[in-house]
Design brief:
Layout (H helix, E strand, L loop, with lengths): L1 E5 L6 E8 L2 H16 L9 E8 L3 H19 L1 E11 L4 E10 L13 E11 L3 E8 L1
Helix pairs in contact: 1-2
Length: about 140
């Protein structure tokens, strides 16, 4: 399980590859990459809890909408995040997630990019021995 930022894939954007032995691990890895694109989670206190529930018709749509929801919460509530718990029901294509974070506080937190959206540029989800996703974020 994990993710790796990819340099030189998308100029002026943030790209990453996430992996997981199952969809829960893949979604958690991808969410963690989005969180770390916005701020160093070690500098964000887990003061506010946000819940996400999603159901979609495909794995692609579920991951895309899930990552978009994290960005939406950042924008709507002026938040960055400390951590996330995710559970994906692979048969029903549903997920439940709990985000912990705090309001944006530039003097207390190490802020990174202002992520605006998930793009379809280089978008790929596949399963080989493990699940893999390639994601580009518009910043």
């Amino acid at each position: 399980m994990g993710f790796q930022f990819v340099e030189d894939m998308a100029i002026a954007d943030v790209a990453f590859r996430a992996t997981g032995k199952d969809l829960t691990e893949l979604f958690k890895s991808a969410a963690q990459a989005v969180i770390e694109s916005m701020a160093n989670p070690k500098t964000v206190k887990p003061m506010i809890v946000k819940k996400i529930k999603k159901k979609e018709s495909t794995i692609d749509k579920l991951l895309f909408e899930f990552l978009e929801e994290i960005i939406y919460l950042k924008d709507k509530d002026a938040m960055v995040f400390h951590d996330i718990d995710v559970k994906v029901d692979e048969k029903k294509l549903e997920l439940k997630a709990t985000l912990r974070g705090d309001k944006i506080k530039p003097t207390e937190q190490e802020l990174h990019q202002d992520v605006k959206a998930v793009t379809m540029h280089y978008w790929l989800i596949e399963k080989e021995k493990e699940w893999k996703a390639t994601v580009v974020l518009d910043i």
